[in-house]
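We emphasize that the prediction below concerns an isolated chain of 167 residues; any contacts that depend on oligomerization or on bound cofactors are therefore not represented. The input was used exactly as deposited, without trimming of termini.
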Amino acid sequence: MTVFLALGIAGLVLVLVSLVAGDVLDGALDALEADWIGSAAIGGFVSAFGFGGAAADAADAPWPVSVAVALGAGLLVGWFAWWLTRLVKEGPSDGTISISDTVGQVGKVVTAIPGDGYGVIRVVVGGHTVTYNARANTPIEAGDEVNVIGVVSPTAVNVAAVWKSPS
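Result of the prediction step, given as a token string:
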């Protein structure tokens, strides 16, 4: 039972060190990493193996049964830790918002847009408020809503007034 408990504690220490100090000790745990497995999966396996074996041994199971229970618990927790870390590493991340993401969005005019020049609009894209220069074919007053219909340059868009329903 002592061997199982020692393995369980060692696995927990490995998980804690890899989670807490992994960034601080950059590269120190790279020997435990590979493309297909990480230190969290190894630590999860070792700790579940140890504590699963200790639990089976405490229930007076014979040694071969304790080892089988330990192996099953270790494989289950190790696989789950591998799956979670892979899910996090390969998960999508928010990309940088570009001006082309505003096309098709509704914005609000901040500075009036003259028929022959530029004004300023504010648009919410992906939860982020962005401000761009804007031009339109017809004058649009500040406070009006507009549809972004195209990109003129990296800092400017074409807009059209939103149709107002008769009240």
